[in-house]
Amino acid sequence: MKRFLATPDRDAYFDFLSLLVVMSTHENRDLADLQNAITWEPGQEIDFRTAKLRALLKHEITHFLDTTTTVWGGQYTFRKLRMLCAVQGNTEGYEDAGSVFALESSEIEMHSELTQAGAEPPASCDVVKHQLVDRAEYGVCVLVHYLKNGQTIHKVPLSMLSLLEANATASEFLSFIQCAQSQDDAVARKIETNEIEQRYLELLNDSERLEYSVFLHLVRIHFPYLDLSEQLKFVAALARYSLDSTFANLGYISNAIQRSFDNKELGDRICMELRRDSCKYLIFFKTVLLMYGWLKNLSDARVTEIQQHLRESPLEAIKQLWADQTYNQLMDDRAFRDLHVKSQETWMHELGVPLADGRIFGESQQANRAALERTSAGLLSFTKLRLLDAMLSDDTELVFPNRIDISVAAYCNEHLQTISSLDAAYRKMQHKRFYLDPSSDLIIRSSYT
Fold first, then answer.
1. Is the dihedral of CA 405, 425, 64, 435 positive or negative?
2. Which end of the chain is more exposed for a tag (fewer CB within 10 A), N or C?
3. First and final CA of the chain: distance in angstroms?
4. Residue 146, SS3 per DSSP
5. Do 404 and 363 contact (CB within 8 A), yes or no?
6. pLDDT of 69-83, one tens digit each?
């Protein structure tokens, strides 16, 4: 199957069509080491290989969790299963299934042709600017410019890929930091922490992964007073906040974002897509920029308070920002959100497809959502997470302690034809998104916000 998202070193990937984590460079001979990485707990001794395997697993299971515990993930999966219905010949009621699913797939697959990498290391760029560009395939896109000494060095578009990879990478490096902090010796802890920070910079400086690291770079530039662990916890909290946003508050958030764009015509259009539950990466992007500007205009005492929240409870800082930007119009939508994801699970079951996505989504969101609202997956014990077992490259199953009771090898064999037909349809489809015509009367214009 195609590798839709992969870690920077290509050692593993998460497949969105089957919901499987695949350890593509590991076989049965690595099973004991992988199990040691899973069972390790903070405070225990750990070597670098085990820490690396644990971090790799945390990266990939974060993709699984984002897809099976958030509003965005439920929408992605439901629209994917509708396309499967069409692929299986259910034409009545599913005529638009491919184009609707392309709304989701295009936000992950798109934009690679817009990326321009320069010669300077990305992490050496100390200023970012952005522009809105109009593309016939996707509508309005955000293009981020990396500047050094006033010159644009790199250009990278924002996408859901950027958002998903930011959260997964935050989990990966938080896991590394957690392992390093378990060293008894203070000198060893310091050395390992320095090495982790160096590997993080190397990731940011990988010019082939600009779209994967753009949000990490933005947070690093705008919040330099946060240490790496604090930056990553903020990234994790903001990624979940963005992926789990609901219709109940999207209108108010969109209004605030719309006011912040200088290009009113294109800003109006992309914010209308956000109101329609697309382009959720905008929430992450604008939260970083608005938080930076907001802190500049607060009293010293208030700045100290918000910065403390950023360090200790970043979700609280995010909520306070949006309360301010929306004039306290946001509602506490937790009950609405929980009801919505439960409805998404019901809709998946009602489609009657042979795949177990509805069951997997249901068990994952019921068991994992509460913990992930408070803590990054990178810091949670594997015993606290309900997961689908992973596969090694030789089809060996990697079993998690609190597993969803599905034999993934048998499941893949049983549903090979179904998954293959969905995969084939995915490869053939055009990842273009339909969007409102620029002249549409449905677009809420800036003069009304």
1. negative
2. C
3. 45
4. strand
5. yes
6. 999 999 999 999 999
Whether residue 383 contacts residue 113, with contact meaning beta carbons closer than 8 Å, is answered with: no
Least confident of 8-22, 191-205, 338-352, 363-377: 8-22
Cα distance between residue 439 and residue 424, in whole Å:
36
Q: How many Å apart are CA 449 and CA 447, to the nearest integer? A: 6
Per-residue pLDDT band at 5 (split at 50, 70, 90): very low
Whether 40 maps to a domain, the answer reads yes
Contact 87, 422 (CB under 8 A): yes
Which uninterrupted H or E stretch holds 228? helix 228-243
In a domain, 233, yes or no: no
Alpha-helical runs (H) found in 116-227: 160-180, 186-204, 210-222
Structural domains of the chain, count: 1
Structural domain range at position 324? 1-110+238-438
In a domain, 400, yes or no: yes
> Are 302 and 256 contacting, i.e. CB atoms less than 8 angstroms apart?
no
Beta bridge partners, 132, equal 142
Q: What is the DSSP letter of 184?
A: S
